[in-house]
Amino acid sequence: MENLEFYFDLTSPRIKGKRIVCGVVGSGNLEIIVEENKTVQTQFLISTTVENYSLIWSLVIDDFVKEYQPAGLKFTINDNGATPAVVSLRLKQALEEFTGYKKTASSYLELDARGRISALTDEGSFNEWLNNEDFYSPHLPILKLPVEADDGIVIGSAQLNAQQILIAAQQKDFMGGAVGEVHGAKLTGLFKAAVTLGVKAVVLLIDSGGVRLHEANSGEIAISETIRALFEARNHGIMTLGVVCGKNGAFGGMGIVSACLDSIIVNETARIGVSGAEVIQAVKGIEAFDAEDRALVWRVYGGKTRYIQEMAQSYVGSSIDSIKKAMNTAIDKKIPLTLEQLKTQHALLKKRLEQSGSCQEEGEWLREKYPQFAAELFHMDEQRFLKAADIIRKDIP
Amino acid sequence: MITLDKVMNALFENDYQLTENNSVVFGDAHRNTQLIHVLGVKESTYLGAEQAFIMAEQLIGLLEKKSQAPLLLLVDVAGQQLTMRDEWLGMNQYFGHLLSCLECLRQQGNPIISLVYNQAVGGGFIAYGLMADTIIALPEAKLAVMWLEGIAKVTKIDLNTLEELSQTIPVFAPGVNNFHLLGGLHDVVELPKAGQALDNALKKNNKEDVRAQLGKERGGRTLAYTVINQVANSSL
To answer: What is the 3-state secondary structure (H, E, C) of chain B?
Structure first.
């Protein structure tokens, strides 16, 4: 790790605006925090994983300052090996965002956490929490790893169809959305806040491999604390909803958290489980699970399998609009934590075990139980799949 | 490795009866005439969909009976079951179901205590042991999210570096003391004193989740409590 600082005395008028965070500390990427500076100078504070490049940094930043004259601002940059071209682009984007430019949503998969929240909630309604302070992971720097100001999760309040909700989105590209001490504490706090504020729902945009092994023990305890706070919120009548439509899916502790929510929305991209295929292959060998076989991975963990099994309550396309529509419908379907409900769930899980025979994955199971769908189901488009899934789900109690 | 019988004898002398199904054990015990329900797994089981289902079934039974007696969770779990079949079956949903059952029991008013008497590893520990009101471990218990070799492999950090850091940092390395420092264990006691610890836990009847606070007080987990509170007190 190396820290660099650059200062500029600019004579142009000071630029005003609200603090913003742009970018994610993924590999080959960086985040830039822009805020008004308290002193007269324009300031750049850089923390980078790649050492001995101060000359290049100084050239890139000089160019940027010359072109945009960002007077009165402070730029905090957390870099994880971005190229000069990426740094230039990100600086420009960050300044545009600071001065009020908003990029419009395209595909959910590609959007980062903030982009996802603003695309899925009522326009302009998102109020990011801890926005003005940084809670960096205290543990990653010890392992010489880059940190991110939000520790990989963005939280706050927003409105969905004019109803008050709290929302969290995991940053898919920072440590694979994994849960560390701060990350997990933000999730726990969010559910506690939901109780105090009496909101309608808490929505989690899950995109995570589970506990962050670099802070494994704290992450595991944090998952357990989140689960307790989540149940507490449910007991107070708050709807809890998960959206698992991102590239990392919901694994490990987050796979377990997802199963504690009232309801989950998935799409074809989704994967939900505890141990990923790579882990099973690494421990038990390729005969136990060929993690390279993508079709097999999706038959085991994928969105279609999880919807047919009724682990997920909604199956959507990949557009922002279809996810939004499903969220609007889902938040009115609160599931109480009662003995009656437990017995219904128990019957579902019992039937699944009884019907499973010696099957190992959904394709095998379909060949036995629903041969008419076995060949096609994982290639069907959304409409045809939903029709087939309806027929299969009707047989489940 | 300490056997389940030895643990049960230390806590309840001969006053207990356990049934076993698929390495899941359950039954009733008495301590100073107090009825205590017992549920857990033995012999370093890998917790899978089936085991979680059997455990949930026992808890639904207790809810239907409206029993008010405390529940002791016995933890000797080597991790989650690592098979394609368990993953396909939706093991995470079986774990979620087990956790929901424990939550309903808590709501019914039953105190829930965990005793980690041997292993408590990974997802299998999250699935029930960590859900108790009070979590106790024996000093020789083995707690981990993943063993250091596994962490080194996944994080691509040199094993020697991890071993060296683990001497001074409790945050990632296995160990009872680490989990205690972080607030993940309420208490660590020798087996002869485990009964007394159980009595104390029942007397205290701690219903709040104080683990983040303990982590801060013990200096192992310094930020969690602060962040939780700051977020919990945010306004719309």
So the answer is: CCCHHHHHHHHHCCCEEEEEECCEEEEEEEECCEEEEEEEECCCEEECHHHHHHHHHHHHHHHHHCCCCCEEEEEEEEEECCCHHHHHHCHHHHHHHHHHHHHHHHHHCCCEEEEEEEEEEHHHHHCCHHHCCEEEECCCCEEECCCHHHHHHHHCCCHHHHHHHHCCCCCCCCCHHHHHHCCCCCEECCHHHHHHHHHHHHHHCCCCCCHHHHHHHCCCCCCHHHHHHHHHCCCC
Q: What is the pLDDT of residues B13-62, one digit of tens each?
A: 999 999 999 999 999 999 999 999 999 998 899 999 999 999 999 999 99
Distance of CA A295 to the CA centre of its chain: 23
Distance CA A85, CA A56 (A): 11
Among residues B75, B65, B60, the alpha carbon closest in space to that of B35 is found at B65
Question: Given the DSSP bridges, would you call strands B134-137 and A263-266 parallel, antiparallel or unpaired?
Answer: unpaired
How many whole angstroms separate alpha carbon A333 and alpha carbon A320?
A: 21
- A266 to chain B, closest Cα gap in Å: 14
Contact A216 B146 (CB under 8 A): yes
Residue type, A245: C
- pLDDT value of position A169: 98
Chain A residues closer than 8 Å to B144 by CB? 216
Q: Who among B123, B131, B228 is closest to A185 (CB)?
A: B228
Residue whose C-alpha is closest to residue A149's, from A242, A27, A19: A19
Whole-prediction pTM: 0.92
Nearest CB partner across the interface for A339, out of B63, B165, B233? B63
**Helix/strand/coil (H, E, C) string of A251-278?**
CHHHHHHHCCCCEEEECCCCEECCCCHH
In this structure, are residues B152 and B159 in contact, taking their beta carbons and an 8 Å threshold?
A: yes
Distance CA A357, CA A376 (A): 22
Burial B46-80 (b: 16+ CB within 10 A, else e): bbbbbbbbbbbbbbbebbeeebebbbbbbbbbbbb
Candidate from B89, B224, B226 with C-beta closest to A218? B224
| Closest A-chain CA to B214 | A221
Q: What is the largest CA-CA distance in chain A?
A: 76
Q: What is the longest distance spanned by two Cα atoms in chain B? A: 56
Say how far apart CA B217 and CA B225 lie, in whole Å: 10
B184 and A346 in contact by Cβ < 8 A?
Answer: no
User: pLDDT tens for residues B125-161?
Assistant: 999 999 999 999 999 999 999 999 999 988 899 999 9
Query: Would you say A220 and B125 are in contact if contact means Cβ atoms under 8 Å apart?
Result: yes
ipTM for this model: 0.98
Contact A182, B224 (CB under 8 A): yes
Q: Is A188 exposed, middle or buried (0-12, 13-18, 19+ CB in 10 A)?
A: buried
